[in-house]
Amino acid sequence: MFKKILLFVAMIFLLFLQLQIPLVDFLNLSEIFQWIDEIFSVTFFIIFLLIVVYTLRLRKKIFSVFLIIILFSIICLFSGIFVNENRLVVSILGTFDYTKNFLGILAFGMLNFTERQIKGIYNILSSFTLFICVVAIVLVIKYFTLENNLLLVLLGSIKEIRYGIPRVAPFNIHPNMFGLLSLLFFILDFAILPKINFRKLLLLLGIIFSVSRMVWMGFVVGILFLIFQFKIRSKIVYIFLIIAFFIILILPKVLKITQIEYISEGYYRGYVFKKSLEIFKDSPLLGIGPGMYGGVISVKFNSPIYEKYNFSKYWYNFGLAKFHSLDMFWPQILVECGIIGTLLFIYFLFFLYKITKRHYKYLDIYFIKRFCLGLLVVPIVIFFYLFGSGLNLASFLTTYSVFLGMCLGVRNSYENSAYK
Question: Among 28, 96, 230, 368, which is most buried by a count of CB atoms within 10 Å?
Answer without folding.
Answer: 368
